[in-house]
Amino acid sequence: MPDANDSGQSKDYGIGIPQKPDVFFLKGSGNLDWGMKDRLARIFSPKSGRTVMLAFDHGYIMGPTTGLERMDLTIVPLIPHADCLMCTRGALRQIVPAASGKPIALRASAGSTVLTELNDECVIDVEESVRLNASLMAVMVAVGSKFEALTIRNLTRLVDMGNRYGIATLGVTAVGKELTRDARYLSLASRICAENGAHVVKTYYCEEGFEKVTASCPVPIVIAGGKKLPELDALRMAYQAVEQGAAGVDMGRNVFQADDPVAMIQAVRAVVHDGERPEKAFELYKTLEARKP
Question: For 36-135, where are the E strands, in sequence order?
Answer without folding.
Answer: 51-55, 84-87, 104-107, 109-110, 122-123
